[in-house]
Amino acid sequence: MSQGAARARRNEALLAYALLFPSLVFLGLFTYLPILRSFWFSLHDVMLGDPDIFWMGADNYLRLIDDHLFWKVFANTAFYTLTTIPLAVTVALLMAVALDSKLRGLAVYRSAFFYPVMIPSVAAGMVWVFLYAPGYGPINEALTALGLPRLDWLYDSAWALPAIVLMSIWKYSGYFMLILLAALKLVPSDLYEAARLDGVSAPQRLLHITIPLISPTLYFVIVIGILHSYQIFDYVYVMTQGGPADATNVLTFYIYQNGFQYQDIGYASTLANTLLVFVLALIGLLAATLGRRVHYLGER
Could you say which of 224, 232, 241, 258 has the lowest number of CB atoms within 10 Å? Predict the structure, then answer.
């Protein structure tokens, strides 16, 4: 390689690093440094506003194992994830397939399906509090009209978490639909025409053509959905405050409670680190299982 070419490559690399530097600084200050600081706090007895910090070692993690409320909160979070993500992705896929067909008034349907995504989370939570209201809520009025019993929804420990799951499906499906709809546009229409000529039904075309060809996007949507599900906080804060009887308490809200209500920063940091490790392990497991089944166009 000539000296001129080597100098050009070096200048190009320097320019790339110079352009990346502000983003790397921002990422380090607001992502990696807080993670390291959280790990350091988890090894100490740290109270909010108290300058005195005492070394505890692994005591906070041992306390976590014996914390029965933590395991209940963990189970609530797992239930929320395992129900919301499959249902929201399924609804989003069906909506995307419907919108990919030649429907009349397509723009109206697209706007209607995507509208929940544009509503601020707090506003959406307040709307659903009204919808779930035991005495006058429209959902209970509809149940009465159908001859079904009225439910207390957010005030019943058996129904409070499913109620938040239902609202989350309504909120997330439009976002997932938009991503999947973009992927559907890349599927060759010739495949569908050939399948129709061979007498393949619509469900079979969906199962054997559509899903395999958009599997990379489906995988991406599932990963994004899992990350969203473990960040749920605003809906719980607005709608239930973790109640009744901690039936809707999830890990992020439990972290908030310990850190800002009980002012125990050390234990809140321990919970946050545990959540981070669990999410990374879950994403790794997903990559090792579902990720291996993803079909990329051009691969043989």
Answer: 241
Query: What is the 8-class DSSP label of residue 244?
Result: S
Number of domains in the chain: 2
Same-domain check for residues 172 and 267: yes
Same domain, yes or no: 1 and 128: no
What pLDDT, in 10s, does the model give residues 221-270?
A: 999 999 888 889 999 999 999 999 999 999 999 999 999 999 999 999 99
- 54 forms beta bridges with 45
Same domain, 34 and 86: no
Tell me the residue range of the domain where 159 lies: 61-293
- In this structure, the answer to whether residues 34 and 69 fall within a common structural domain is no
pLDDT single digits (tens) 208-235? 888 888 989 999 999 999 988 888 999 9
Cβ atoms of 48 and 267 within 8 Å: the answer is no
Question: Are the C-beta atoms of residues 228 and 172 closer than 8 Å to each other?
Answer: yes
Structure-block tokens of residue 98: 């419907």
**131 and 160 inside one domain:** yes
Which parts of the chain sit beneath pLDDT 50? 300
Instruction: Please state the three-class secondary structure of 173-217 as a single string.
Output: HHHHHHHHHHHHCCCCHHHHHHHHHCCCCHHHHHHHHHHHHCHHH
β strands within 27-133, DSSP E? 44-45, 54-55
